[in-house]
Amino acid sequence: MEYLLLWGIPVLFVIFGIVFSVGKGAFLIAGYNTSSKEEKENYDVKALCKYMAILCFVVTIKLLIMNIAIIHSITGIIYLMIFLMIGATIGIVVFINTGNRVAK
């Protein structure tokens, strides 16, 4: 059961990354999904999905490294990957929301 969770979550992130990388799946993005039609027209959906795909693939790599560290009981790497995942998520969200990167 623990292996399903350990390896299933990175597989799920890869699937989401693939969906986002082809420009689909914008309805999965919480802020975009809850926007009005007028607000959605201000966004470049392809660019938004591209950045979300990057985020999904970055998180996948960190999860895989963390899973290997969990199997080998290397707690320092586990904490490092958690810290880097949080940092990467915050960094990419700030990057997307500054500089009109996803604006039409």
Describe the structure.
The chain has helices at 2-21, 30-33, 37-40, 45-71, 75-97. It has one domain. It starts with a helix and ends in a 7-residue tail after the last helix. Helix 1 (2-21) packs antiparallel against helix 4 and helix 4 (45-71) runs antiparallel to helix 5 (75-97). The protein is elongated and about 50 Å long. It has 5 helices and no strands. By secondary structure, the chain is an all-alpha fold.
Layout of SSEs?
Blueprint: H1 2-21, H2 30-33, H3 37-40, H4 45-71, H5 75-97
Q: Given the helix and strand composition, which structural class is it?
A: mainly alpha
Give the number of domains. Answer: 1
Sheet-strand content, in percent, reads under 5%
Largest sheet: none
How would you summarize what this structure contains?
The chain is mainly alpha-helical and 104 residues long.
Features:
mainly alpha, 104 residues, 5 helices, elongated
